[in-house]
Amino acid sequence: MIYQGEALSVQLLQDGIAELRFDGTGAINKLDRATLLSLEQAVTALEQTSGIRGLMLTSAKEAFIVGADITEFLGLFELPDAELGDWLAKANAIFNRIEDLPFPTLSLVRGYALGGGCECILATDYRIGDTSARIGLPETKLGIMPGFGGTVRLPRLIGADNAMEWITTGQENKAEACLAVGVLDAVVDTEQLQDAAIRLLQDAAAGRQDWQGKRARKCAPLTLDKLEAMMSFSTAKGMVAAKAGPHYPAPITAVKTIEAAAALGRGAALLIEQDNFVKLAKTPVARALVGIFLNDQFIKGKAKKAAKAAPATRKAAVLGAGIMGGGIAYQSAVKGIPVVMKDINDQALALGMNEAGKLLNKQLERGKIDGFKLTRVLSSITPTLSYDGLQGVDMVVEAVVENPRIKSQVLAEVETKVSEDAVIASNTSTIPISTLARSLKRPERFCGMHFFNPVHRMPLVEIIRGEQTSDDTINKVVAYAAAMGKSPVVVNDCPGFFVNRVLFPYFFGFGKLIADGADFVQVDKVMEKVFGWPMGPAYLLDVVGIDTGHHAAAVMAEGFPARMSKAGKDAIDVMYEQQRFGQKNGKGFYAYSQDKKGKPKKEADPQSYQLLQAVVTGQAEFAQDDIIARMMIPMINEVVLCLEEGIIGSPAEADLALVYGLGFPPFRGGVFRYLDTLGLASYVALADQFAHLGPLYQVSPGLRQMAADGKTFY
Ligand code: NAD
């Protein structure tokens, strides 16, 4: 044994070929601080051992190295600039020493080699893998960029254009694609990997492979002439800036880093990477995106625990084959859980099956599934008009029309058709779960399971605990949502649950802005382009449906009269009364037509302005910041109340629900991350300037106290 550490070891195999084997203490290998320290000691041992003719890096786990340890990131990002720079320099010195070992080196890649794992294999002379290899540099997705030499070694290995594509998209690349660009030198069968690696190293050691030449090219400036460089980098900058948009600085910084270092050798190029990494690590965007990743891990951890505690759903039933029921049935089936889809209407069933078929055909066209899987998934959805097919069903999701009387009746009916231990969940968006539970004999086996439209795309499922819902029931439904590939967030019962409860104050803020004279098109533009929402409030209402919005607004007003009842009519009422229901009937705030591809195209409709005059009482002009404040303060205050009242369990769950369910701008991380970034005291001072606008603009005493105490949510 040449070296033995906690996370890796080095031993001599045969004929002077050594193996450095990563074998972390957890289920996967991560390049955390402890592993880096160990790697440094291993390299020292290798440098001091004589007789080594070649080295291969391998993993004892299924995957090579999944990346750096992201749980360490936020702590690292807090370090002073110089200290963070030193840490990067120290890590880079280790990879440089691997690259400079006096014998040929090779990485043997199975499974993931991502982020730091990818940068580690880039330091060796050769890389061979099997077909399971997945290699990439996903750092820009977290608001940072590669910091262990990725922006230096990758372009020198596969060319600047390929490297910029890998780094700016953060994509994971399959073995074949890695071979095509030259990240992998060979792809071989798993059983032959080790032999192939030893043979290649022996060949290289014997001088039959030019490993020194390969190594020298990786450490030299990029071989691009001036014109090529200009074309390459200006095209990339244009494309990347357009795609990432102004709120995500990492991809464009990565391109500029590669450009600035193009004419430099390894040492100088690494210094540029280091400086730019530090700058990105200090941005609120990096903190927000890493925060979302960590919140997502937190939710996944909770779902795993739930899955261990509850029996898995073997067969599900969905009641209602409409927009939501059809989507839920599809999602269950596509993830391998067979489902009975019941409706009272034959045509609805046909439509539901047709939609599932369309989604599957799209996946077939994209090569994501084969014909066999398409048939298997479709045949695992059983459409029915009767309750007969419900034997063996252990999970029911009710998604019939949003009418309390019909829902209560359907729930009571289905309870008599399934076994006693089956769980029933309702996809209602507004009716309190404890109200619906009254129609059931076993309310403890009942809860809310609120999906978002379109089900196959929206990652969030809000799971609502009613007054009598048991822990077993919650565990079962959380596990089912996770098995469907969704992120389940458990909330307590109240009108609107969490997501709609905090969305409607935002719409009320919109109504007040319109009443005071704002132009809805301007409000949409500011909330989309400046704040970063995927849709502004007027457009969102049109997409959700003005009728749906109008109904939910009334439910919210009844549920929270002190804050959400209205003195008179507002903009939503005007649209509703004129039956301008939005996209669904071609007219809402905007007028809709179809573009050449048949997609809805929106235009500001002069008639909307005329109609809105009925509720406009002011003529103020609004600056961008005022629009943002007046729209966001009601939502933020309601989110804080939900935490204080225990409707949502933690800032992490709230923020994830906002990003995954509403499309809250990811670069802001969610309401609590946004508050921490603004500073609680600054937020309170801002909100106080708008306090005259009514109860939704009042900061809670709890938040005021936190601000006074200098606290943060994370
Ligand atoms: P929808 O009108 O598209 O579908 C409802 C279906 O229920 C229809 O096919 C209808 O025939 C069927 N139905 C009516 N009575 C039935 C009965 N007794 N048994 C079986 N089926 C019956 O409605 P939707 O948009 O899919 O909404 C369904 C539920 O999901 C509602 O509670 C709604 O609030 C909720 N929801 C909707 C959305 C959305 O964006 N559409 C989002 C989240 C939650």
Automatic annotation (TrEMBL):
Keywords: Fatty acid metabolism, Isomerase, Lipid degradation, Lipid metabolism, Lyase, Multifunctional enzyme, NAD, Oxidoreductase. Its EC number is 4.2.1.17, 5.1.2.3, 5.3.3.8, 1.1.1.35. PROSITE patterns: 3HCDH, ENOYL_COA_HYDRATASE. The keyword Transcription does not apply. NAD(+) binds at M324, D343, V400, V401, E402, K407, S429, N453. Pathway: Lipid metabolism; fatty acid beta-oxidation. Gene3D superfamilies: 1.10.1040.50, 2-enoyl-CoA Hydratase, Chain A, domain 1, NAD(P)-binding Rossmann-like Domain. One of its GO terms (biological process) is fatty acid beta-oxidation. The active site is at H450 (for 3-hydroxyacyl-coa dehydrogenase activity). Substrate binds at D296, N500, Y660. GO terms for cellular component: fatty acid beta-oxidation multienzyme complex. Residues 311-714 are annotated as: 3-hydroxyacyl-CoA dehydrogenase. Residues 1-189 are annotated as: Enoyl-CoA hydratase/isomerase. The keyword Isomerase applies. The record marks E119, E139 as: Important for catalytic activity. Pfam families: 3HCDH (PF00725), 3HCDH_N (PF02737), ECH_1 (PF00378). Residues 496-592, 627-710 form the 3-hydroxyacyl-CoA dehydrogenase C-terminal domain. One of its GO terms (molecular function) is 3-hydroxyacyl-CoA dehydratase activity. SUPFAM superfamilies: 6-phosphogluconate dehydrogenase C-terminal domain-like, ClpP/crotonase, NAD(P)-binding Rossmann-fold domains. Residues 315-494 form the 3-hydroxyacyl-CoA dehydrogenase NAD binding domain. It catalyses: a (3E)-enoyl-CoA = a 4-saturated (2E)-enoyl-CoA; a (3S)-3-hydroxyacyl-CoA + NAD(+) = a 3-oxoacyl-CoA + NADH + H(+); (3S)-3-hydroxybutanoyl-CoA = (3R)-3-hydroxybutanoyl-CoA; a (3S)-3-hydroxyacyl-CoA = a (2E)-enoyl-CoA + H2O. Heterotetramer of two alpha chains (FadB) and two beta chains (FadA). Involved in the aerobic and anaerobic degradation of long-chain fatty acids via beta-oxidation cycle. Catalyzes the formation of 3-oxoacyl-CoA from enoyl-CoA via L-3-hydroxyacyl-CoA. It can also use D-3-hydroxyacyl-CoA and cis-3-enoyl-CoA as substrate. In the central section; belongs to the 3-hydroxyacyl-CoA dehydrogenase family. This is Fatty acid oxidation complex subunit alpha. It comes from Zobellella taiwanensis. The lineage of its organism: Bacteria, Pseudomonadati, Pseudomonadota, Gammaproteobacteria, Aeromonadales. The gene is fadB.
